[in-house]
Amino acid sequence: MARSEAARVALLDAAERLFAEEGIAQVSDRRVAEVAGNTNHSAVRYYFGGREGLLRALVARHMDALAEPRRAMPEQPDSVLGDVRSLVQPSMAVLASLPRPSWRARFLAQALHDPTLRVLMREAFESTFVDLPARASLASRLAHLDRGVVAGRSALIARIVMTATAEIEARAEQEGQDPRWLDVGDFLADAIAGMLAAPVSRPGAANPLTDAEL
């Protein structure tokens, strides 16, 4: 690995850990550089153009890592559960591939609390998942439900998944155990499929989870 690329990776790794442990707003670019072992305190600006560029690079690194495990999933799932597994398990495979301890799940959970990162995450996920066959298949299987209901459930599921995986990752670090991410993925996929396909108690009721809260 070239020296410049090694320095870039070190900054990404340091930022991911610090942001996961302390929160994004609480960590300065200078501290990221120091923890990365870079004597240039302006290294984040030099390599990424500033804080937003660093956040974009962190999100892109995770999105890019999803490509290979996504190709390993069945091309034509046969059920809502199959569709959900095709969307969930690639992320679990990425988490499983990381060195121990890892901070990726906890970093992604910080997206819930940082306005800039939340927008970047939404943009990245939309561009990454928009053309996936499993997404189109899932939408077709859920076409009998109100779109607002599906959107609200999806928003709630995203929060649950991010919070749960962050907690599992933290516990695994504390206990020195393997998170068993693929088993986690199976459990989450079962729960998500049930939540998405659940009956609606009050058809036509407003979705309480607005876009402003996502």
Give a brief outline of the structure.
By secondary structure, the chain is mainly α.
Report what the structure shows:
The chain is mostly helical and 214 residues long. The chain has helices at residues 3-22, 29-35, 43-48, 51-65, 67-71, 80-97, 104-109, 115-129, 133-141, 147-175, 181-197. Helix 1 (3-22) crosses helix 2 and helix 6 runs antiparallel to helix 9 (133-141). The protein starts with a helix and ends in a 17-residue tail after the last helix.
Number of strands: 0
Q: How do the helices and strands follow one another from N- to C-terminus? A: HHHHHHHHHHH
Radius of gyration: 18 Å
Category by helix and strand content: mainly alpha
Set out the fold topology.
Blueprint: H1 3-22, H2 29-35, H3 43-48, H4 51-65, H5 67-71, H6 80-97, H7 104-109, H8 115-129, H9 133-141, H10 147-175, H11 181-197
Which key features would you list for this structure?
11 helices; mainly alpha; 214 residues
